[in-house]
Here is the input.
Amino acid sequence: MRHGKKINHLGRKTAHRHALMSNLASSLILKKRITTTVAKAKALKKYVEPLLTRSKDDTTHSRRVVMSYLQNKETLKSLFGEVASRIADRKGGYTRIIKLGETRLGDGSEMCVMELVDFNDVYKKDGAVKKAKTRRSRKPAGAKAEAAKGTQEEAASEEKA
Here is the structure.
């Protein structure tokens, strides 16, 4: 039985897998978008989202904890500076996986693009102009009154004729 064995080993030993996740996370934080396989992206999502959450409070302890995972000073600086300021109001779901619908030529593995959600201007909700919410009716209030007057005047003109 495989109770409680959720981790995807990705065909690697533990040390190699940790190094892979650390390097992928560093690349994602620095470049904001990476192309990888779907399996690696799903594993990376579980690895990097808690680090992004921890970067919201800029304390010495949280910096040391994140540094133990990433082991790259430039990535740490970018994470606690630029990235943390963008994701400050988001409660979770910091990453997005977009499947490319193509396979890698060498081994046929499914490829995807993984990106930080707040750094993509195409899908940003704030980029679109927000319209004011209004109740819709068949005709506006002013048009109804004018239409009613118009029909009364037409009826009166027909009776006279």
